[in-house]
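job 3f2a | input accepted
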Amino acid sequence: MKNFNNCVVLIIITELTLFTNIYYIHEAQSSLIEDWAIFMAKEGKEMFQNKG
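job 3f2a | predicted structure (52 res):
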């Protein structure tokens, strides 16, 4: 029974680690998308100003 309990604990720790990694990857992607959107908005504004 002890080995089974150790195995369950290991599985839970592994799942938590994977979940944490997925969360941080998602946060990094959100930040990159936000930065890209701000950059594109600035570029669009400059292009519009240069036309006029």
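job 3f2a | The longest helix spans residues 2-51.
job 3f2a | closed
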